[in-house]
Design goal:
4 domains, binds adenosine-5'-triphosphate, about 700 residues, helicase, alpha/beta, Rossmann fold, binds magnesium ion, 29 helices, six-stranded parallel beta sheet, about 50% helix
């Protein structure tokens, strides 16, 4: 059990009787402490189902489950390993009725929320609606409801948003729906205001473990506190230097408050980094050094000095991409230690913002290098997948009006906007959901007769599907059911009708099939429920469908594919790769635009405002996260010119490059690398053509 843990880690793992905080820098084995501690808790007699480990993403949860399974075997399957949001779903499924929510509530995604807000606020401008969304979300994360938000609103604009928030909340409850913030806020309300609910959950939670604690927000912290109660049996691990979600309301106050709220908190520091070479770790330590320290930390590595960190300059983004790919090829073609750490999956290209991926994708394609993009558009954000999910949502929750409107028009079934408008007015008048309105006796007075027939037919069809879905269990039955349904509604044809480009339509259809396969797999218990509970038994399609909106990728649990990773820095948190290229390390990108001009960006000599200083510090932490993803080699690249709108403008290297304090003699990229890359490429082509020439 103690294999592969140092003394400090062991101390954290063995301390099971009270609250424990592991505070340590990147790569020091914090996540490892959590996985091992799950095993330890079981060893000392805690029932697996009374252990909950909370991770930052579903992907991290899947990985932790996998590792726990390797460590402790079968018992791992009863442990709850999930995100705060998924835990929220579980709490609300069991106890949401107390707040008037039925167990089959819908979860609205960001796009749904934008359109509901447009409606509530009477605007067609998505940007404005998103602005409101942002503000409302922040308020919700601060625990404010519409009334409280109005009471503390500093100006007219805020008062307007607070009023829209009131309407929005009414809408959600009419739809029996919640948004992502509610997945934290409502469980908190349940735990805080209903003692019997709280006591039940506290009895259920023998020990709660939280990874990436520095990125929890105030509401999540309150949920945690209520879950563990005064006994405070929990283990939080985190690193204040990696707090990168301040813009989403995460707050380091949670770290400061722990010792105050739990006076018997045991604080353990880890100092050895097991991930990176000394050269990389030094650059990381140097970069983070100017930030104020919440807790002093030191970090050392015994992995040797290693390759120097390289700085690469490029003319523009295309050139930068070419150089990054040349570097990958050069390392792959290298002569040292030929079999080790040189597969595609050993490489990552990391950048500040999603849109920066494009030139790298193109260059990788040209070079025939397989890759995946993470942290970008989610599979579940694709139109075709959202169409299908709307149908599922409607089966589960008939009151979900946004889902109703999407399902009834995807594909179009001869029910026009006029009819839907009339139906909407009728439903509002009688305070019914659109679905309920379908079957109201007086509907024919509001909608013309032919349309009523069409609406009734749709309603009956939904009821029929719902009934069939409820009784469809297991993978094969589920797949057959889904394919038949798609045929019935003519979805494939709908895709081809809606797209001039056949290739695009066919790609969409492939996504649909892939999605059905995945859904069916979940029904068959091949993959865990997103709420982190055991999956080994079959589930009905309806059960599976409810948590889809929490998931962003189909391949959460797939064993790492052998491909190069392209990722945003935010999505790279907690992960590691042997070779990392950090790209776009320019002023204005990383740190991201801090102000409108130099004066505000802190480049001039004048004093920086507090707000800008804080943003700069968060950007610096992001740089620190990026650097510390690398195990053996790190290159940092920047471009001399950058696209700004349609123009190319001169660009500067990021101040963080200077802050890494690299040795001037070693940072320039080794010119021999280019040569090696060429040689490798040449050898590959020769091998390819030799293979082709074979009969
Ligand atoms: P981050 O701050 O990036 O989340 P972390 O502190 O969670 O990092 P881990 O991911 O747990 O660190 O560990 C980093 C690497 O070091 C992993 O590859 C892990 O397997 C390895 N590692 C951790 N502890 C030990 C140890 N005691 N002995 C050997 N390897 C270790
Ligand atoms: Mg970690």
């Amino acid at each position: 059990m103690s294999a592969g843990l140092n003394l400090a880690q062991l101390e954290a793992v063995n301390y099971v009787q009270g609250p424990c905080l592991v505070l340590a820098g990147a790569g020091s084995g914090k996540t490892r402490v959590i996985t091992h501690k799950i095993g330890r808790l079981i060893d000392v007699g805690l029932e697996p189902k009374r252990i909950a480990a909370i991770t930052f993403t579903n992907k991290a949860a899947a990985e932790m489950r996998e590792r726990a399974k390797d460590l402790i075997g079968k018992a791992a399957k009863d442990v709850t390993v999930c995100t705060f949001h998924a835990l929220g779903v579980r709490i609300m499924r069991e106890d949401g009725h107390v707040l008037g929510l039925k167990p089959q509530f819908s979860i609205m995604d960001a796009d749904d929320v934008t359109s509901i807000l447009k409606d509530c606020g009477g605007t067609t401008d998505a940007a404005t609606a998103r602005q409101w969304q942002w503000t409302i979300s922040l308020w919700k994360n601060m625990g404010l409801n519409a009334e409280q938000a109005a009471a503390q609103a500093p100006d007219d604009n805020a008062r307007v948003i607070a009023r829209i928030m009131g309407l929005y909340e009414e809408r959600l409850s009419a739809y029996q729906s919640v948004d992502f913030d509610d997945l934290i806020g409502m469980p908190l309300k349940l735990l805080a205001d209903y003692p019997e609910v709280r006591e039940r959950w506290q009895a259920k939670m023998g020990h709660v473990l939280v990874d990436e604690y520095q990125d929890t927000n105030a509401t999540q912290y309150e949920v945690l506190k209520h879950l563990v109660g005064e006994r405070g049996r929990f283990t939080a691990v985190g690193d204040d230097d990696q707090s990168i979600y301040g813009w989403r309301g995460a707050t380091l106050d949670n770290l400061k408050r722990l010792p105050q709220d739990f006076p018997n908190l045991k604080v353990i520091k880890l100092e050895q980094n097991y991930r990176s070479t000394s050269a990389i770790l030094r650059a990381a330590n140097n970069v983070i050094q100017p930030n104020p320290k919440l807790f002093p930390k030191t970090l050392f590595s015994e992995l040797g000095e290693g390759e120097p960190v390289r700085v690469v300059d490029a003319v523009n983004e295309e050139h930068e991409a070419d150089r990054a790919i040349a570097r990958i090829q050069s390392i792959r073609g290298g002569q040292v230690n030929p079999s080790k750490h040189r597969e595609f999956k050993d490489f990552a290209i990391l950048y500040r913002a999603n849109h920066m991926a494009r030139p790298f994708e193109q260059a990788l394609r040209r070079a025939n290098i397989p890759y995946k993009v993470s942290g970008g558009q989610s599979f579940f954000d694709k139109t075709e997948i959202k169409d299908l999910c709307a149908w599922f949502r409607l089966w589960i929750n008939n009151d979900d009006d946004p889902a109703f409107l999407r399902a009834i028009t995807s594909p179009k079934r001869g029910i026009g906007h006029q009819t839907l408008g009339q139906l909407g007015t009728f439903a509002t008048q009688y305070k019914l959901s659109l679905f309920e309105a379908l079957f109201a006796g007086s509907l024919p007075s509001a909608v013309n007769t032919r349309a009523v027939d069409g609406l009734h037919e749709f309603g009956r069809y939904i009821n029929d599907l719902e009934h069939r879905a409820r009784h469809t269990l297991g993978k094969e039955a589920a797949l057959a059911f889904l394919l038949e349904w798609l045929k019935e509604i003519g979805y494939e044809q709908h895709l081809y009708d809606g797209e001039d480009n056949e290739k695009v339509a066919s790609a969409r259809w492939t996504n649909v099939l892939e999605f059905c396969d995945w859904m069916a797999g979940r029904c068959g218990g091949e993959i865990e429920d997103a709420t982190g509970t055991d999956a080994s038994e079959s589930k009905s399609l309806l059960e599976v469908a409810q948590t889809i909106s929490l998931i962003s990728t189909l391949s959460e649990r797939e064993k790492d594919q052998n491909v190069v990773t392209l990722s945003t820095l935010h999505a790279s948190k907690g992960l590691e790769w042997p070779h990392v290229v950090l790209v776009g390390v320019n002023e204005g990108l990383l740190p991201f635009k801090l102000g409108d001009d130099d004066e505000h960006s802190g480049r001039s000599d004048g004093p920086m405002s507090e707000g800008i200083l804080q943003r700069l510090q968060e950007e610096r932490r992001l740089m620190y996260v990026g650097i510390t993803r690398a195990q053996r080699s790190l290159a940092v690249s920047w471009t001399k010119r950058r696209k700004k709108g349609r123009d190319m403008v001169a660009a500067l290297p990021s101040r963080f490059i200077a802050e890494m304090k690299l040795d001037e003699n070693t940072i320039k990229e080794d010119p021999r690398e280019k040569l090696r890359a060429l040689r490798a490429e040449f050898a590959k082509r020769a091998a390819d053509s030799a293979a082709e020439a074979k009969p």
